[in-house]
Write a structure and sequence with these properties.
Blueprint (H helix, E strand, L loop, with lengths): L1 H8 L1 H35 L1 H16 L2 H8 L3 H4 L2 H26 L3 H9 L4 H31 L12 H10 L2 H29 L4
Amino acid sequence: MDFIRFFGSHRTEILTLTVEHLWLVGISVAFAVGVGVPLGIVITRSPKLRAPVLGVVNMIQVIPSLALFGFLLPLPWLGERADRLAIVALTLYALLPIVRNTYTGITTIDPAVREAARGMGLTSMDMLWRVELPLATGVILAGIRVALVITIGVATIAAAIGAGGLGEFIFRGLAMVDNRVILAGAVPAGAMALAADLGLGRIEKLLRVPR
């Protein structure tokens, strides 16, 4: 009951921080998709790049979030704005599942399908847009789904560098040893992650093509 009363009396601030959180996550995942999908396509065409690219995105994923923020902080353009720093860090964290699933989705297409496409006279670019990406859409979306859920969680750490978001309530509650304040940040963030997972999961099932 205390939490419900606290939530009601601070609903405006909670809504404001939820919108900040959504903005950080949305921009970061959009950038990650814009970089990760092309990277995944490139490494299907250039096998020599596969190990270096996957190695780098794997390495980024295992760096603790606060440490990554610390590594990026000295960079002049990023260090000037906490939101820029948070977006770049969150984008880097979201890359692995997107790059990996794009690569996996394209490379696991039945070779017979490729042969049929070549027999119809499709060029490499035509095959990518008309055969490979449509067949790989479900797998790619699964990677975006994982990236989105990860980013929603990691974005709570962005409050530690002043980037806003629901993490402000969590850090404030930890400092005050007040469970109500912690839950005011944790509950909306958890609900957001659950909604994103369920929503994209349903879309993924609709778009997944039998191969």
